[in-house]
Amino acid sequence: MKVETRIEIEKQIVGQLLNDALINGFTVSVDDGGERYALSHSVNMDDIMTALMNTDRNEVVFHDKNGQPAGWARLVYGNNGYDVIANYEIDITKSGSDAIFQGAIELSENLKEKYA
User: Fold this and answer.
1) What pLDDT does 89 receive?
2) Where in the sequence is the domain holding 81, given as residue range(s)?
């Protein structure tokens, strides 16, 4: 697979993940391994995407309307693309948290079938 194709696949999956989180009322923080979040409690898709993919991995944290964590995802770049979501966890007690990952996981599975 070409590097450009892999990067596009990663962007599609991450974009789906973020879009679903924002649509469901969550804010997003980006941890790029530094001492502080690279971006904290954002609802701006452009800002979030700019904060991502600058290192070989990021963790994104999803916060509910009260600012409390509702889930997280570890994103690892540079493998097959469709496996960009390396690990994740949700707090099922937070309303709508289960919807954060549904679309991205389905897209990932479809792209894996297409490119694997």
Assistant:
1) 94
2) 3-115
